[in-house]
């Protein structure tokens, strides 16, 4: 087991890319969530080989997201089909992680974007109206 709490790795070799099939991004973590807690919670879905809670290099404070890697890529499907997930009092958002240097055939296109830094007075309707200038907006939602 390898536990890392601050470094981000890049995938380069074929072996590393193959191992990424069991890798998940976990967003929405509580500032208090530790790698051990992450491993304990998601360990019920399969053997975890790596856990990372990403931290700011200067403050050492959690950045609110992390990664887990399962030994068996089928565990990823188990996590995705058994949500929603709550950890340390917060709803967390597990997703399939894609390597930074993914092979073009591994990259899928999504029509979903994240917009952060909005003022408290911004409504979902404001966001929809703004982005309609770029095309049809089918859904607008927000995460606390």
Automatic annotation (TrEMBL):
Domain RRM: residue ranges: 22-101
SMART domains the record matches: RRM
Keyword RNA-binding: yes
Alphabetized Pfam families for the sequence: RRM_1
Keyword Transmembrane helix: no
InterPro entries, A to Z: Nucleotide-bd_a/b_plait_sf, RBD_domain_sf, RRM_dom
Keywords per UniProt: Cytoplasm, Repeat, RNA-binding
Highest taxon above the source species: Eukaryota
Main location: cytoplasm
Entry's localization field: Cytoplasm
PANTHER family associated with the record: RNA-BINDING PROTEIN MUSASHI HOMOLOG RBP6, RRM DOMAIN-CONTAINING PROTEIN
Designated name of the protein: RNA-binding protein Musashi homolog Rbp6-like
Organism: Limulus polyphemus (Atlantic horseshoe crab)
High-level lineage: Eukaryota, Metazoa, Ecdysozoa, Arthropoda, Chelicerata
Gene transcribed to yield this protein: LOC106465815
């Amino acid at each position: 087991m390898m536990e890392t709490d601050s470094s981000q790795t890049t995938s380069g070799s074929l072996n590393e890319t193959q191992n990424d099939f069991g890798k998940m991004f976990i967003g929405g973590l509580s500032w208090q969530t530790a790698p051990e807690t992450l491993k304990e919670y998601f360990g019920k879905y399969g053997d975890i080989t790596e856990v990372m809670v990403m931290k700011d290099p200067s403050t050492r404070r959690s950045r609110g997201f992390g990664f887990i890697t399962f030994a068996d890529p089928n565990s990823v499907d188990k996590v995705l089909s058994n949500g929603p997930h709550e950890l340390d009092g917060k709803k967390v958002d597990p997703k399939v992680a894609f390597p930074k240097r993914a092979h073009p055939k591994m990259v899928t296109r999504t029509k979903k974007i994240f917009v952060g830094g909005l003022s408290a007075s911004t409504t979902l309707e404001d966001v929809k109206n703004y982005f309609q200038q770029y095309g049809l907006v089918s859904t607008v939602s927000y995460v606390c």
